[in-house]
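Lecture 7 notes: from sequence to structure.

We start with a single chain of 148 residues. Read the sequence below before looking at the structure.
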Amino acid sequence: MKNHDSGSLIDQTARILAGPMPRRGALLALGRVLTGGLFAALSIQRADSQTSSKTCGGGGGCGASQKCCETAGIAAFCIDVTRICCANISCSMSEQCCTTGTKAFCAGKNSTCCGKSTCSAGSTCCANKTCCGKNQTCVGGRCQASKA
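Now the structure, written as tokens:
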């Protein structure tokens, strides 16, 4: 069986059942086809999962174009060398890693990390919860109009 997709598996099954073969032979052949399809599906899934979630330790175990991300308390993992480590995710080189909230995230380099979101250029983060505009200041965790 060259192709292990579901259409090919169904076609092969139909051919076996329609052929001039005793029931026992047909059932054995059908079992082989189904077993082969199952093993093919499992091996494809296993290869994909190993590539995408490959773990590393001490900088080793990653491919030639990968590097190891190691953050305290988080399992080490491999990322492409063109990306940066950000807790348990990775960001592109044109982004920054924000760890101001409960979950790390990637943001534009011109923005300011502020809690679970970012503040645009020209604004400031107030109490790690909200963004104050350029004519505002953070007082007691709230944005207030600046005194002129």
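Residues 23-52 form the longest helix (30 residues). Keep this in mind for problem set 3.
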